[in-house]
Amino acid sequence: MANLHIRNVDEMLVRKLHQRAKANGRSAAEEHRQILRDALLGGNPADVHAIAAKLRELTRDRPKDRPAEDLIREQRDSR
User: Fold this and answer.
1) How many domains does the chain have?
2) pTM for this prediction
3) 3-state SS string over the chain?
4) Helix 28-41 crosses helix 11-23 at what angle (to 10 degrees)?
5) What is the pLDDT of residues 50-67, one digit of tens each?
6) Residue 1 domain-assigned (yes or no)
Protein backbone atom coordinates (compact mmCIF):
# COMPACT_ATOMS: atom_id res chain seq x y z
CA MET A 1 0.00 0.00 0.00
CA ALA A 2 1.12 3.52 -0.69
CA ASN A 3 1.27 6.43 1.72
CA LEU A 4 -0.44 9.73 1.09
CA HIS A 5 0.63 12.92 2.83
CA ILE A 6 -1.49 16.07 2.64
CA ARG A 7 -0.05 19.40 3.68
CA ASN A 8 -1.67 22.71 4.55
CA VAL A 9 -5.04 21.34 5.61
CA ASP A 10 -7.27 23.86 7.37
CA GLU A 11 -7.46 23.18 11.13
CA MET A 12 -11.26 23.24 11.00
CA LEU A 13 -11.22 20.41 8.46
CA VAL A 14 -8.86 18.38 10.62
CA ARG A 15 -11.20 18.81 13.61
CA LYS A 16 -14.21 17.80 11.49
CA LEU A 17 -12.38 14.72 10.22
CA HIS A 18 -11.50 13.65 13.76
CA GLN A 19 -15.11 14.23 14.90
CA ARG A 20 -16.41 12.20 11.98
CA ALA A 21 -13.95 9.39 12.69
CA LYS A 22 -14.99 9.27 16.33
CA ALA A 23 -18.70 9.26 15.40
CA ASN A 24 -18.09 6.34 13.02
CA GLY A 25 -15.95 4.40 15.49
CA ARG A 26 -12.86 4.55 13.30
CA SER A 27 -9.36 5.87 13.59
CA ALA A 28 -8.68 9.14 11.81
CA ALA A 29 -6.52 7.33 9.26
CA GLU A 30 -9.27 4.78 8.51
CA GLU A 31 -11.83 7.57 8.23
CA HIS A 32 -9.61 9.34 5.72
CA ARG A 33 -9.28 6.14 3.68
CA GLN A 34 -13.07 5.64 3.76
CA ILE A 35 -13.69 9.20 2.58
CA LEU A 36 -11.29 8.65 -0.32
CA ARG A 37 -12.94 5.30 -1.17
CA ASP A 38 -16.41 6.86 -1.15
CA ALA A 39 -15.29 9.84 -3.21
CA LEU A 40 -13.36 7.88 -5.81
CA LEU A 41 -15.16 4.54 -6.00
CA GLY A 42 -18.77 5.45 -5.34
CA GLY A 43 -20.89 5.73 -2.25
CA ASN A 44 -21.87 9.27 -3.15
CA PRO A 45 -24.00 10.68 -0.29
CA ALA A 46 -26.16 12.48 -2.85
CA ASP A 47 -27.17 9.07 -4.24
CA VAL A 48 -28.11 7.89 -0.77
CA HIS A 49 -30.21 11.00 -0.20
CA ALA A 50 -31.95 10.53 -3.55
CA ILE A 51 -32.76 6.90 -2.71
CA ALA A 52 -34.03 7.88 0.74
CA ALA A 53 -36.24 10.58 -0.79
CA LYS A 54 -37.65 8.04 -3.27
CA LEU A 55 -38.40 5.58 -0.44
CA ARG A 56 -40.13 8.30 1.58
CA GLU A 57 -42.23 9.15 -1.47
CA LEU A 58 -43.17 5.50 -2.03
CA THR A 59 -44.17 4.97 1.61
CA ARG A 60 -45.72 8.32 2.46
CA ASP A 61 -49.29 6.94 2.53
CA ARG A 62 -48.48 4.05 4.85
CA PRO A 63 -49.67 4.31 8.44
CA LYS A 64 -46.91 5.52 10.71
CA ASP A 65 -48.47 4.52 14.01
CA ARG A 66 -48.35 0.75 13.45
CA PRO A 67 -45.46 -1.40 14.67
CA ALA A 68 -43.18 -2.74 11.95
CA GLU A 69 -43.97 -6.30 13.03
CA ASP A 70 -47.64 -5.79 12.15
CA LEU A 71 -46.77 -4.42 8.72
CA ILE A 72 -44.38 -7.30 8.02
CA ARG A 73 -46.95 -9.87 9.15
CA GLU A 74 -49.65 -8.26 7.01
CA GLN A 75 -47.38 -8.25 3.97
CA ARG A 76 -46.35 -11.87 4.55
CA ASP A 77 -49.94 -13.04 5.04
CA SER A 78 -51.08 -11.35 1.83
CA ARG A 79 -48.88 -13.65 -0.30
Assistant:
1) 1
2) 0.52
3) CCCCCCCCCCHHHHHHHHHHHHHCCCCHHHHHHHHHHHHHHCCCHHHHHHHHHHHHHHHCCCCCCCCHHHHHHHHHHCC
4) 90
5) 888 888 898 888 777 888
6) no
- 6-63 tens-digit pLDDT: 999 999 999 999 999 999 999 999 999 989 988 888 766 667 788 888 888 988 887 7
Residue 51 falls inside a structural domain = yes
Q: Which amino acid is at 48?
A: V
In a domain, 71, yes or no: yes
Amino acid at 31: E
Domain residue limits at 38: 11-77
Within-domain flag for 3: no
